[in-house]
Design goal:
The complex is a heterodimer of chains A (about 120) and B (about 110). Chain A has about 120 residues and is mostly beta strands. Chain A has no helices and 11 strands. In chain A, the strands form 2 sheets. In chain A, strands 2, 4, 5, 6, 9, 10 and 11 form a 7-stranded mixed β-sheet that branches. Chain A has a 4-stranded antiparallel β-sheet with strand order 1-3-8-7, with no helix packed on it. In chain A, strand 4 and strand 5 form a beta hairpin. Chain A is globular. In chain A, about 35% of the residues are buried. The model of chain A has no long low-confidence stretch (mean pLDDT about 95). Chain B has about 110 residues and is mostly beta strands. Chain B is about 0% helix and about 60% strand. Chain B is built from no helices and 11 strands. The chains are: A mainly beta (about 120), B mainly beta (about 110). The interface between A and B is medium-sized, with 22 and 21 residues.
């Protein structure tokens, strides 16, 4: 099993450009998440999904959109990148324990720089 | 929303020493995890522990849900234990919230 994978690993954008980050998991997990981590800080939740075809906002959703057309994939889009979106982006997935999400498993991260 | 605090913010140890990291949270939770972020940025699961005690080798964790805290114990520390330790919690019906982390440096 590959676990959680993220594409790309690194990316440099200019202000105003758009891009999509891809997260894939092969563990048949229901829940998927996108976080951002800024220097010296913990992770903050951007958006999440509780199943195929569903998405919901997290703590810091502004400037991002997501889609979950297939259970194994969760896409994060930046329509018009801004320097404030320079960060490391982590994807995670977890299975459902019946009372909510269980253990989260993280991908390796995508380092994004917006000039 | 739920508030999460971790202490100490920084910790420097000699190899072989023991340490205790603490995570306090402000509301009842149904999910609590400890992670290790290594110097390469990778997030590694340590424990899923919304309550009770678990052990895995030199690491163990205890969560006292009624008193809203969790402890991570590292015994006989090694240089490979260096990095940042995060706790992440989820209150009922809410989103996951990460603490600010404890940065651990283990010196040879």
């Amino acid at each position: 099993n590959a676990g959680v994978t993220q594409t790309p690993k690194f990316r440099v954008l200019k202000t105003g450009q758009s891009m999509t980050l891809l997260c894939a998991q092969d563990m048949n997990h229901e829940y998927m998440y996108w976080y951002r981590q800024d220097p010296g800080m913990g992770l903050r939740l951007i958006h999440y999904s509780v199943g195929e075809g569903t998405t919901a906002k997290g703590e810091v959703p502004d400037g991002y959109n997501v889609s979950r057309l297939k259970k194994q994939n969760f896409l994060l889009g930046l329509e018009s990148a801004a320097p404030s979106q320079t960060s490391v982006y982590f994807c995670a997935s977890s299975y459902s324990s019946g009372s909510g999400p269980d253990t989260q498993y993280f991908g390796p991260g995508t380092r994004l720089t917006v000039l | 929303g739920i508030q999460v605090e971790q202490s100490p913010p920084d910790l420097i140890l000699q190899e072989g020493a023991n340490s205790t990291l603490r995570c306090n949270f402000s509301d009842s939770v149904n999910n609590l995890q400890w992670f290790h972020q290594n110097p390469w940025g990778q997030l590694i699961n340590l424990f899923y522990i919304p309550s009770g005690t678990k052990q895995n080798g030199r690491l163990s964790a205890t969560t006292v849900a009624t008193e809203r805290y969790s402890l991570l114990y590292i015994s006989s520390s090694q240089t490979t234990d260096s990095g940042v330790y995060f706790c992440a919690v989820r209150a009922y019906g809410q989103n996951f919230v990460f603490g600010p982390g404890t940065r651990l440096s283990v010196l040879p």
